[in-house]
Amino acid sequence: MIAYNTTELHHLQVQFNVIGWEDEGLITAEEKRSILDKYPVKLFMPQFFLRLGLGILTVIASSAAAGILFIANDARVPEALFIICGIGSIAALEIFIKKKHYRSGVDDILLHQGILYLFTGTMMMLADDVNDNAELLVFSITAIILYGIAALRYLDRLAALFFVAAIVVFEYALFMNTLGRPSVPLLLMNASIMTALIFLCRKSVGKHFSRFHSDLLRLIELAGIICLYMSFHYLLVAGLFELQPITGNRADLAPLSQTWFYWAWTIIFPLGLLWYSTWKVNRDYLRLSVLMILSIFYVKHLFYPSMAPEWAALLYGLLLIAVSYFVIRYLRKDKSKFTYEVKADGTGMNQVEQLAVTAAFSGTGLSSSEKGTQFHGGNFGGGGAGSDY
């Protein structure tokens, strides 16, 4: 199912973990070199600026090839030509993957250009046969399929985000195509789907079948939490319902009922997520909860302004700075499972499993420098230590 060589991906994961362990002082430089020699990576992964340059060159080359194809056929059947260009881009993507390209800029651009070509061709074929709402419905279904396949096969993070966005668009298009306007069941359906998506991602992370999709699953989980929060967020609900006509006359605005529930959701959900992130030691949830709390200030000032915007921004900013100061002082004292010091993996948390693995590498305990426990002294190949380790 995965287009990239899974052995190379496994070696890449091992190298990433080992480099992080050395930065944290859990293994020595000699142990790191020994592991890296056992798990070489032959994938072509250029630095950011080279990746950016290769991506730009790929856009130019791909667009030029598509332009030549359109000129040669006088663009008589553009929808078919777009689909041909999409298939050609995906075929070229597979070729470059065989040549060991992995997030090199070339494979990224070819993937998304191919999807855009296929989108355009599909929508042009259906443009004259369906109305606007049905067209949006077909568009979202096509997006779910294409971006879902792209995320699963090519491990593309942007495709994973577009996959979640396409689900939300599908829900909206479904209600617009059947009822003609959004309603409370739309919010309930979105909340239910996002809850199921979050649960599925959390259950799948760490499983053997999803070992190469863990980053994508976490990203989809975070996107699902944002969409779940926005399901009943006061700002979104007010924008959807208060601006919807009752009788077809734009002057007739549907009144927004149950405002207490939407305000309670807008305020309580971030606070609950903040508590949960602290309890479960989840830094991503912690960051999301802080951003959601910021949205509370924004929505409150938008609907119920109590002072000038610049004074409100100054007050909220000083409040957040003060809270951050005391939180940082608290974390520096190691009174929490969180630590303020940033670890090599960027989480800033204590990783028990890393310590356990390092202990296994060193043979006894966590001290890898004790006599007779040097990592490079034994047979490491095959996923375990030999008898002379």
From TrEMBL:
Q: Is Transmembrane one of the keywords UniProt gives this record?
A: yes
Q: Where are the transmembrane segments?
A: 48-71, 77-97, 109-127, 133-152, 159-177, 183-201, 222-240, 260-278, 285-304, 310-328
According to the record, the residues making up region (Disordered) are: 367-389
UniProt keyword annotations, A-Z: Membrane, Transmembrane, Transmembrane helix
Q: Where is the composition biased (Gly residues)?
A: 378-389
What name appears for this protein in its UniProt entry? DUF2157 domain-containing protein
Question: Which organism's genome codes for this protein?
Answer: Flavihumibacter solisilvae
